[in-house]
Amino acid sequence: GAVVSQHPSRVICKSGTSVKIECRSLDFQATTMFWYRQFPKQSLMLMATSNEGSKATYEQGVEKDKFLINHASLTLSTLTVTSAHPEDSSFYICSARSQGWDEQFFGPGTRLTVL
Amino acid sequence: GQQLNQSPQSMFIQEGEDVSMNCTSSSIFNTWLWYKQDPGEGPVLLIALYKAGELTSNGRLTAQFGITRKDSFLNISASIPSDVGIYFCAGFSTGANNLFFGTGTRLTVIP
Fold first, then answer.
1. What is the structure's pLDDT at B98?
2. B50 in contact with A at a CB cutoff of 8 Å?
3. What is the pLDDT of residue A38?
4. For chain B, which residues score pLDDT lower than 50?
5. List of chain A residues whose C-beta atoms are within 8 Å of the C-beta of residue B106
6. Does residue B18 sit in helix, strand or coil?
7. Which residues lie across from A80 on neighbouring strands?
8. Which of A32, A105, A109 sits opposite B41 (nearest CB)?
9. Across chain A, where does the E strand assignment appear?
């Protein structure tokens, strides 16, 4: 299958700081990338969908000014959690899909802990 | 939004036993995908199904796309300890650009 990487795999930050998470498709062009959040023992919750070169589409209840998404190239999307608070602590996972594909491939996830 | 109900929520089985789990949706899906997630990792795609009635295997795993297009099944034969994890169904409904995920089935295999 196609490979998606995420960086960092784990980050701990102080409340009020901003954190950037990178998602890269390593061996294909990701025309669409997705960002999910997963709380312990729960399923994945879609936060936003981004098409390369376009503004991201956010799911209901997700603050676009808090979770900034950039998808400036066909291999890279970034999620920036601005002014992070403890309640933002979660497992953030990106996935990517190429045009015409039905399959979505996931990154390994980023564990964010806000103190 | 779309709702995918997955059952059972959790399973405890003996090594060597077969496992069956299923997923139902409230609307018609065009594609069904089954993923496995290990702790602290992202989901890994196991099987993809593209048309109603399709039966696809991947090693000890077999999945089927239901005839009604509202359900899918995943079977694991002769389970082994490394099968432990959470299994998610996911699918695309008509006109949707993103996957909808099931609630997950947590599998524990007892050696």
1. 78
2. yes
3. 94
4. none
5. 41
6. coil
7. A20, A68
8. A109
9. 4-7, 10-13, 19-25, 32-38, 45-51, 57-58, 67-73, 76-81, 90-97, 105-106, 110-114
- What residues contact A107, with CB distance under 8 A and at least 6 apart? A4, A5, A6, A23, A93, A94, A95, A96, B42
Pairing of strands B44-49, B29-37: antiparallel
| Interchain pair A32, B104: CB under 8 A | no
| pLDDT of the residue at B1 | 53
Are A92 and A36 a contacting pair, CB within 8 Å? yes
Residue B95 pLDDT? 72
For residue B97, the model assigns a pLDDT of 74
User: Residue B109: helix, strand or coil by DSSP?
Assistant: strand
B41 contacts chain A (CB < 8 A): yes
Cα of first residue to Cα of last residue in chain B, in angstroms, is 40
Round to whole Å and give the CA distance between A6 and B53: 36
Task: Give the integer Cα–Cα distance in Å for A38 and A76.
Answer: 21
Spatial separation of the C-alpha atoms in residues A26 and A40, rounded to whole Å: 28
Residue A66 has φ and ψ, to the nearest 5°, of: -95, -35
Residue A18 — φ and ψ, nearest 5°?
-110, 145
Mean pLDDT of chain A: 94
A35 phi and psi, to 5 degrees? -120, 130
State which residue of chain B sits closest to A90, comparing Cα positions.
Answer: B40
